[in-house]
Fold this protein.
Amino acid sequence: MNKFILLAFFSCLFFTAGAQALFITKDAKINFNSSTPVEDIVAESNQATTVLDIEKNVLKFSVLTTSFKFRRALMEEHFNENYMESPKFPKASFNGKIVSAVDWKSEKPASVDVQGTLTMHGTSSEVTFKATITPGKSKITASAELKVTPEAFNIPIPSAVRDKIAKEVTIKIDAVYAPYQQ
């Protein structure tokens, strides 16, 4: 019986200590921009879920592709039905690591390198990008920008609209993480 109580105590201690290393947000902002001389296509979602493990420097995020909002309803419809095929591929995700050293006790912004796998439209591609992380006592803020090509994710672009969609699409991510509470 005493061994069981001791095991339960150390299990709780382990999971509590681990939880303090986890930070989460369910309302990270992801914006993408495809600018050409013919047309600017801009969309934003503030419904991305992201987890940051500061012990392992692991970063993950996921966003429903239908959560992106556009200036025009027709753009949103084409994005979800024709390009992202949202019913078939409902989310985009990133699974990676911060590969630069981070002083998580500092409250100063740090420029870091992030590497990992970005998955969209059922296709995964390795990406590397810069991010700015600002640790804090009760929150961590992070922002990043990366460029991707539709071709890298097998997103079909018909020749009739090729001039309206940038060869490289800019993705911006902003997140404010809070400690994970079990």
